[in-house]
Amino acid sequence: MKPWVRRLGQGALLLVIWGAIFEIGLRVQQYFGPLDDLEMESVSLNWESDVLNHKPAPEKQNLCIYGDLTGFSYDRQFDANGIRIIDDKALLAGCRKPMSVLFMGDSFMEGYDDENTLPYQVAKYFRKERDICLKTHNAGYTSYSPSIFIPQAKKLLPIVRPDYIVVDVDETDLYDDFARYRKLIVRNERGQNVGVKASPIGHECSVGLMEARKHPLYLQRFAAKAWLSLVHMPAVTKKYRSDDDLALFGYSSDQGSNLEQKYAAPLATFKHNLQELADVLKGYTGDGSRVLFIFHPHLENLQPDADGRVWNDLVSSTVRAMCADNGFLFFNATATLKQRFGGKPEEYYWPGDMHFSFEGLEEYSNAVAAFMASEMIKPHD
Fold first, then answer.
1. What is the DSSP letter of 75?
2. Would you tell me the crossing angle of helices 118-125 and 358-375 to the nearest 10 degrees?
3. Smallest Cα–Cα separation from 270: which of 251, 292, 291?
């Protein structure tokens, strides 16, 4: 046998051996973890909505374009209207006619398991501290923003018929409204937002994962996911967002002058959506006294960077101005949480993630509840 043939055979054998080792390793991590899910059983197109862009499945699902970096596993359920189903019997025990509150927001409102959510913690505060019963309806879901709140509110208000409405708007919403959803909004003949179509980027991602799981070998699936993530999805994102010159949180960290002028286009979209949402909420409540907009800080709003600067108030001031124009209540929790978190605010957020930890969420919820008790919900109501 010629040497080059022998070396070729040896190389092929080594390739097979290492392939087998990696295949076994990937299957082992799938069984004990997984660190990288190669079964992808939960991936489907059930999340797509032409009214709310994306919607929760009745049981826990994994949206591939919205990462969960907390490392915390929990179960959650939603009803047909996208409202969390929770066990709040203990909070409502003995209550004859609890007041109802509809909570709207993104993942910060959605929260984690039943008790680690802002609506549950608010109801707990009112029952314990004020002896007031609240029936809370948590309609928060990951990456929802004012453009989605508009059709969502139109759908939910006649169904839930809440006594009060609380809407959580944060730093991410300026980006979401402008970069993610602006081109997907469907308007009727009067120019009103009647729905936000499903994202073609999310669709491509889900379809790609569904194709990847068809491969019989985990090594093939791993390679397919890597290609999807590193090659295909960046190209898809560029295709659909090529002219959206807006970086997430770039406007938040910007310390330059004339920010209103610099971000005029994104702010115009954001302000328009906020006002359209305000019109929907006023149409239901008749006035603004039963509507509260809340704003929570990210870690960068509290912890100075290397130059000693924190994020600006471009987003929060925009929401505050809208509330003032419409007679809504507004609560910015930044100052309160800065005091409560002390000199170590990072201890109240998940490491490597923008979201509150359980302790941070509890502090935020108690701050919101105290404001609601003082300014919004009174015992005689």
1. -
2. 50
3. 251
In the block, which residue shows the tokens 């701050």?
Answer: 367
**Distance (Å, rounded) from C-alpha 178 to C-alpha 273?**
10
Token pair for 337 = 């949480």
Q: Please, which residues have CB within 8 angstroms of residue 250's CB and are 6 or more apart in sequence? A: none
26-60 confidence digits (pLDDT tens): 788 888 777 788 888 888 888 899 999 999 876 65
Residue 304 has which token pair?
């100075």
Instruction: Give tens-digit pLDDT for 73-121.
Output: 677 889 999 999 999 999 999 898 899 999 999 999 998 888 999 999 9
Instruction: Give the C-alpha separation, 106 to 118, whole Å.
Output: 11
Measured between alpha carbons, how far is 292 from 270 in angstroms, rounded to an integer? 18
Burial class (CB in 10 A: 0-12, 13-18, 19+), 234: exposed
Nearest of 191, 193, 192 to residue 181 by alpha carbon: 193
Is residue 299 within 8 Å of 337, Cβ to Cβ? no
| Cβ-based neighbour number of residue 11 at 10 Å | 10
Looking at residue 315, its amino acid is: V
The closest of 143, 124, 140, 125 to 181, measured between CA atoms, is: 143
Strand partners, 295: 332
Beta-sheet pairing, 48-49 with 53-54:
antiparallel
CA angle 314, 319, 324 (to 5 degrees): 125
* Separation of alpha carbons 46 and 177, rounded Å: 22
Q: Which of 40-44, 274-278, 312-316, 365-369 shows the lowest per-residue confidence on average (mean pLDDT)?
A: 40-44
**Model confidence at 349: pLDDT above 80:** yes
Q: Where are the beta strands (DSSP E) in the chain?
A: 48-49, 53-54, 77-78, 84-85, 99-104, 134-138, 164-168, 185-187, 193-196, 291-295, 329-332
Provide CB contacts within 8 A for 82, sequence distance 6+: 52, 55, 56, 139, 141, 152, 156
* Residue 50 near residue 186 (C-beta atoms within 8 A): yes
User: Which long-range contacts link 349-357 to residues 24+ away (Cβ below 8 Å)?
Assistant: 349/299, 350/69, 350/70, 352/69, 353/69, 353/70, 354/172, 354/298, 354/299, 355/70, 355/107, 355/108, 356/108, 356/296
- CA dist 234 and 179 (Å) reads 15
